[in-house]
Amino acid sequence: MKTYxxxxxxxASKKAVVLTAAEIIxxxxxxxxxxxxxxxxxxxxxxxGPMCSSGCFLNFGHxxxxxxxxxxxxxxxxxxxxxxxxxxxxxxxxxxxxxxxxLDYPGEFKFGGGHVIEKLIxxxxxxxxxxxxxxDEYPLKEIRTRFNINDLNQATMVNPRNxxxxxxxxxxxxxxxxxxxxxxxxxxxxxxxxxxxxQLSPLLNDPLYQxxxxxxxxWLAGAKGHxxxxxxQHASAVERTANDVPAEGAGTLAxxxxxxxxxxxxxxxxxxxxxxxxxxxxxxxxIPILNExxxxxxxxxxxxxxxxxxxxxxxxxxKTGKVLxxxxxxxxxxxxxxxxxxxxxxxxxxxxxxAITITEILKSEIQDGSFTxxxxxxxxxxxxxxxxxxxxx
Amino acid sequence: MxxxxxxxxxxxxxxxxxxxxxxxKDFDLIINLYRASITExxxxxxxxxxxxxxxxxxxxxxxxxxxxxKIDDAQKAFRWDEAVCTSCGNCLTHCPVDALHxxxxxxxxxxFDQNVCIDCMGCIPNCPFGACGxxxxxx
Lengths: 393, 139
Hints:
The complex is a heterodimer of chains A (393) and B (139).
Chain A: H1 4-12, E1 18-20, H2 23-31, H3 33-39, E2 42-50, E3 55-59, E4 71-74, E5 77-79, E6 87-91, H4 113-122, E7 126-131, E8 142-147, E9 154-162, E10 169-171, E11 178-180, E12 183-185, E13 191-194, H5 202-205, E14 217-220, E15 223-230, E16 253-258, E17 267-272, E18 276-288, H6 292-298, E19 306-311, E20 325-328, H7 329-334, E21 336-339, E22 342-348, H8 352-367
Parallel strand pairs in A: 1-2, 10-19, 13-22
Antiparallel strand pairs in A: 2-18, 3-6, 3-9, 4-5, 4-7, 7-8, 9-16, 10-13, 11-12, 14-15, 14-18, 15-16, 17-18, 19-20, 21-22
Chain B: E1 2-10, H1 19-27, E2 30-38, E3 44-52, H2 54-66, E4 70-73, E5 78-80, E6 100-102, E7 110-112, E8 132-134, H3 135-138
Antiparallel strand pairs in B: 1-3, 1-4, 2-3, 5-8, 6-7
């Protein structure tokens, strides 16, 4: 048994024993749970993939004369301004003004909120165009100016839903091609796509939220951020396999961090043909090995994590709840899985390779004493369901 | 017999010359044409394999250069930017020849084999990050 304080002391003196979620599997196999739990202080987990419920608050400081912004666009992408005078929120999935969207089906969606966020972090120059109705103390009615992230007072990423614990696998049983946020799906089950870091994924290594809670420090695209709340649609009361790993989406995290400290390699605008724009994000979460039970959970392997295969031509859009079958991540990562008697090629929207990189960066930051852990001050809801939208008749 | 893959760039003045006809007729070369295009600016691109004896290939290439056509040896119209690629792998099921592929399933790193690529451009609209491109699209 170890405490957060003891682990943080070891980190501060650069003596912490840290392994990645990939390394811990063989380590425990070799040493046994009991010995490994004594030796290992932290296991690093990570994921990199599109996370649509992401965005950022930006504060521009005041112009002279002052403006109380009521409509705003950054590089022609609409930002939400229904907050204080020069605060804006830029969301990842916002399209650029005049994007023809799916009028020219399937649309290309070359630039949007996710790309604005990436440009900001790259330190590139962007254009702010803002309007106002004008008030006595905020007389300016229009402003057009160029800025980069260093000109802002704050650029704070605030993501209502990241790190989905598990995710379904998309397939298309219809006879026509469809375009989704899980990529282009060929007709007659011509391919299938998934999006999870599997055995590296944070919430799959802590399936019962024993260490990840509100207040947990996270590596958010290179910045030290934290979990500020349960994520939207957090639904912990789901079917779980014997190892407590959920068979479907389940838990989510709401994350925040300082964009000025982020690395653009891990914050990338993405375009999904026929669907829209989003933001791919890299997140790393350290798991303190407080006891054997917590360690055992981190030894989860791809083959022991199931994902549900859903038909995106019918069952997903119509919300029928039907699951075609379940497959595991070892099968998915092999490149081909047999589905209902047919060999189907697989591909991913999340990057396992980037997730490995993040687990290694976080490992070295903990080893060199620069990244310490936070004890969560509130657990994530352990037994919570998810409502469907109430639609009045 | 050997095969060489070439990307030809035709400037405005030579775009109407029957280069391929002369390669076949005058130099006895076998041509496998992958993709050709003339852009709005009246620049032309052509990606092709030429097969024949080493000496005939050399003569053919000299002829093309003499005609004022620019040659990029073993270079295709397709461009894969490794620095932009995140190895998500979404392209893999849209590459019919596995030019984009994963060699090592423990790292899941996406790699690209220029020699296998047939310039079909199927990956381009399926890369969310914009790592795949082609001179035929950019021009």
